[in-house]
Every structure is written in C-alpha cells, then in structure tokens.
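Researcher: I'd like a structural prediction for the single chain below. Treat it as a standalone chain; there are no partners to consider.
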Amino acid sequence: MKKALVGMAFLLISSLATPVQADEFYIVRDLATQKCSVVAKRPTTDTRTITLATDAIFKSRADAETAMKSIKVCTDQK
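Model: Treating it as a single chain, here is the predicted structure.
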C-alpha cells in the first residue's frame, strides 16, 4: 500500500513538472521587403526589420494564415 502511494505521488509530481508547450503562431512583417509571414516563434525586440503585424496569438498556422488575409498591412503587399 505504501509503495503504491509513493508510486502514485511520483507519477503525479512528474506529470506536473513536465512543461506544457502550447503551439503559438504570430503574423510578422519584414520591414525591408514589406511582406508578411507566419512564424512559430515570437520575434525579439532586438530585430529591427521584423515586427509583429498584429498583437494576436494564433493556436494554429492555418488560423494565422487565414487572419493574415484580412490584415491591411499584409494585404497591401507589393
């Protein structure tokens, strides 16, 4: 009985300690080329030529690509 409790406690703690990675996608705009794209990593502030096109965070790449079609700075691409 004691071994079972210790085993269950170990499983519970190990499952809580495992980080949960949620997929997040961002729409970014390259200021040099004036083009938008979808990326899986939020751009850092030290990148001067890449900026967020919107503050929204998307759960899937497909959702971000669909939303990109309705963002003015992305639809006005040359």
